[in-house]
Amino acid sequence: MAKKAPVRVSLLGCGTVGSGVLRLLRENAEYLESRIGAPLEVRKVLVRDATKDRGPDCERAWVSTSADEVLGDPELDVVVEVMGGEEPAGTYLQRALESRRGVVTANKMLLALRGPQLVDTAVAAGVDLAFEASVGGGIPVIRTLREAFSSDWVERLEGIVNGTCNYMLTRSRREGLGFDEAVREAQRLGYAEAEPSLDVDGHDAAQKLVVLAMLAFGARVDPALVPTYGIRKVDARDHGFAERFGYVIKHLAIGRDHGERLELRVHPTLVPAGDVLANVSGVLNANQIHGKALGPCLLSGQGAGALPTAVSVVADLVDVARARREGAQGLSTRGIQLEDRPLQPLDEVRSRFYLRFNVADRPGVLAAIAGALGEHGVSIEQMVQEGREHDEGLPVEIVMLTHEASWGGVERAFAQIAARDFVARPSRFLPIEAQ
Ligand code: NAP
Ligand code: HSE
After folding, report:
1. pTM (whole model) above 0.85
2. Does the beta carbon of 107 sit less than 6 angstroms from any atom of ligand 1?
3. What are phi and psi of 188, to 5 degrees?
């Protein structure tokens, strides 16, 4: 029997994810061929440094530092982008789509910033743009939203979408691991972005939330408008107090469809200890999606790392290659329909809150804090004060849980309290996610 013509693939990038992709392509070559109906042939692998050792799965002859050589290959069918960043990745993918190549990408930054434009280009060219690995590493959340939810309406979602943050919060809560050491470990394990501040300051999660919002809410959103907070300010004291009140601190991406407006936000949050999300630990990610008809649906799994992410990339590659072989390109991308959706200002978001103050232990301080909170409509539900023995010279920690209040009210009360001379160290607040 005549051998089937191969589907020709080039990679842009061969770091953590790219090397995982090459490993799966080699180890699973026969199986992938049977799924696609033709073998996959790697043509080129674009990198910055041609002298680096790329391991046993990357043939020397594939390595190139010339984007023109890689993208100008007339035989090329599919481009797999695993280099990251907005540029030059954006220009390369635009070029690949315009020249009718299928594209698979893991790049949530690029999708959050230019996803709608890339989707339009792919639709106009009649080719596929697949991006399962951009959210949730190895978890099939994009496919689920695109395919399984096509008969339902997503009302809200909450996700632990950054593996690095979840890993760092878990190690800090369980073992008291310091911030710097925890980042280094996340980098060593291949979870962190090339620039880890994208993880710890919440931007990676915000970019993923924008990608999720494209599929869940059909929304075109500028990631710069998503209220975004990272985990730098969460410390061992917060983990300890949260536990005393029956909560665990998680870094969440939250989306709610309020009809005309969308509520999107990313921040650390107190989650009840019995909640499923509270028990998603380490590098695991989870997305809880609430369908109008379906109710809650939980997807959880390995959210970062070479092989889990490569599983999603290669699954996309199988889909794109098969569609190309069968002459059915572009169908999945055509289903993505986007419109501008205004965002609800964070100020108006209502929640219960955890508040921590470090203040002088002297008469009138508690009354002043309670007064400022009350002035801004924030009512206290529970409180603990912790210090050593009573000594007016030493500050104490006062922690409160509030009834439901507005985010803006808490912020205004905090600004008022921060100006008072009894404040020893900056106060902190975190929202509490309702069950
Ligand atoms: P990485 O380890 O830093 O690898 C990036 C690769 O891209 C390297 O091979 C690098 O070349 C190459 N590269 C970067 N800029 C380039 C340029 N201008 N020209 C040519 N080559 C360039 O990154 P990664 O962790 O694999 O992540 C890749 C993408 O996957 C990112 O978008 C990331 O957000 C996403 N992602 C990562 C994970 C994860 O767990 N790591 C999970 C999901 C999604 P050199 O090797 O020569 O420097
Ligand atoms: N840096 C990302 C994370 C990689 O930690 O979740 C997966 O997208």
Report:
1. yes
2. yes
3. -60, -35
pLDDT in tens, 267-292: 999 999 999 999 999 999 999 999 99
The single residue of 4, 208, 233, 292 carrying the catalytic annotation is: 208
Residue with tokens 């509270």: 278
Distance separating alpha carbons of residues 371 and 382, to the nearest angstrom: 15
pLDDT in tens, 95-151: 999 999 999 999 999 999 999 999 999 999 999 999 999 999 999 999 999 999 999
CA-based Rg of the chain, rounded to a whole angstrom? Answer: 24
pLDDT tier for residue 2 given thresholds of 50, 70 and 90: low
Ligand 1 proximity of 136 Cβ (cutoff 6 Å): no
E-state strands within 261-394: 262-272, 284-291, 295-302, 339-340, 350-360, 380-386
* Gap between the Cα atoms of 3 and 89, Å rounded: 34
What integer is the mean pLDDT of 288-301? 97
Paired sense of beta strands 284-291 and 262-272, if any: unpaired
Backbone φ and ψ for 429, nearest 5 degrees, come out as -135, 150
pLDDT at 4: 83
Q: Is residue 17 lining ligand 1, measured as CB closer than 6 Å?
A: yes
Buried b (16+ CB within 10 A) or exposed e, 243-252: eeeebbbbbb
Q: How far is the CA of 13 from the centre of ligand 2 (A)?
A: 16
Q: What is the DSSP letter of 5?
A: P
Mutate to test the pocket of ligand 2, among 166, 168, 183, 199 (most ligand atoms within 8 A of CB): 199
How many whole angstroms separate alpha carbon 251 and alpha carbon 235? 13
With a 6 Å cutoff on the Cβ, whether 303 touches ligand 2 is yes
Is 292 in the active site? no
Q: In 3D, which of 73, 142, 84 has the Cα closest to residue 113? A: 84
Distance 327 CA to ligand 2 centre (A): 34
Q: Does the Cβ of 194 fall within 6 Å of ligand 1?
A: yes
> Which of 134, 193, 200, 251 for mutating ligand 2's site (highest number of atoms within 8 Å of CB)?
193
Single-letter amino acid code for the residue at 379: S
332 pLDDT above the threshold of 90:
no
* Ligand 1 neighbourhood includes 137 CB (under 6 angstroms): yes
Amino acid, single-letter form, for residue 21: V
